[in-house]
Design the sequence.
């Protein structure tokens, strides 16, 4: 229930913003010299249909030119790498000291738990790779742009419906029927890529890469804490996290309901969606890792079947929710610098 409830609310705000800003056909500009008199001014203009406007806008969005940035020196690059590594290591140590004071009392992680956790992480990485490739393919082909330019609500409602349907079908399929299960799982990842593709129109590739690295660092440190913590220490977080994700979802729908004059209220709801969602899905990562280990123990006793595909879906959703918020945070920082 925790994962099916949090799925419908992930990209509502991002797609709504995209439908209002990123996918409007820009005005066509013409540069010409000013005539000396009005006698030779053309009195007829060639009509441009909607298809030509869409093609021109899409070509402009892909073939833009940016001023060449100065290449960073070797010393600055090494310094940034050292500072980034120190920050990541310090964050990992701090999180481990704060949230992982009580370590496991059974002598460490058993081999079957380690194997099941590694299998889950492998499927999670593979699923994220499929999502990224499908999003990039839809972006480069122009399919997602045409869909969003036609009607963004089709992408929002249809994409969410397909996402929930393929997720439920994947979870309901037995691991023994691996062909059907992996087919549903691949369709689920492709649907997530379609929902994620609009971000590629709003953010530059360098910012997308930075957000991905930050998300990997955050999830990696939290997963390390969940894997080395005491057994079932953080499984109680399921109920509070459900309440938190409901609050985050309501705040995500606030711009669709509140008037534009309620500036302070909209600012509060945006902070709840952004920072509150970051904390909630970080907690879900901790919860999901410990749930994977608990399922490994149950499967070892023969109570349930091992199903790394279902486990990976939960971690993929955590990654996507954190990644979307990382992109928004970096875009806000970039806007302040300008």
Sequence:
């Amino acid at each position: 229930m925790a994962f099916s409830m949090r799925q419908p609310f992930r990209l509502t705000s991002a797609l709504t913003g995209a439908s209002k800003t990123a996918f409007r056909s820009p005005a066509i500009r013409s540069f010409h010299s000013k005539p000396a008199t009005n006698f030779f001014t053309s009195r007829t203009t060639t009509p441009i249909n909607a298809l030509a406007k869409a093609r021109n806008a899409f070509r402009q969005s892909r073939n833009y030119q940016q001023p060449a940035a100065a290449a960073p020196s070797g010393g600055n690059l090494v310094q940034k790498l050292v500072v980034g590594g120190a920050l990541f290591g310090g964050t990992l140590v701090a999180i481990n000291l704060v949230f992982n004071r009580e370590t496991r009392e059974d002598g460490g992680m058993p081999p079957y738990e380690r194997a099941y956790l590694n299998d889950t992480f492998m499927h999670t990485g593979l699923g994220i790779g499929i999502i990224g490739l499908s999003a990039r393919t839809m972006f480069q082909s122009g399919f997602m742009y045409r869909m969003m330019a036609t009607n963004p609500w089709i992408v929002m409602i249809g994409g969410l419906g397909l996402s929930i349907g393929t997720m439920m079908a994947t979870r309901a399929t037995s691991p023994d029927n691996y062909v059907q299960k992996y087919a549903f799982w691949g369709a689920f990842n492709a649907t997530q890529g379609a929902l994620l593709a609009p971000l590629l129109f709003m953010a530059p590739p360098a910012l997308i890469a930075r957000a991905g690295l930050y998300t990997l660092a955050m999830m990696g440190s939290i997963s390390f804490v969940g894997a080395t913590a005491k057994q079932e220490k953080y499984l109680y977080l399921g109920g509070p996290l459900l309440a938190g994700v409901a609050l985050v979802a309501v705040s995500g729908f606030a711009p669709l309901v509140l008037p534009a004059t309620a500036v302070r209220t909209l600012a509060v709801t945006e902070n709840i969606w952004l920072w509150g969602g970051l904390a909630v899905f970080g907690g879900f990562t901790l919860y999901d890792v410990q749930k994977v280990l608990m399922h490994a123990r149950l499967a070892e006793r023969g109570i349930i079947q091992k199903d790394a595909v279902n486990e990976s879906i939960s971690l993929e959703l955590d990654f996507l929710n954190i990644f979307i918020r990382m992109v928004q945070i970096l875009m806000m920082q970039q806007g302040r610098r300008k």
Summary: The radius of gyration is 24 Å. Confidence is low (pLDDT under 50) at residues 1-5, 7-48, 61-74. Residues 144 and 309 are 27 Å apart (CA to CA).
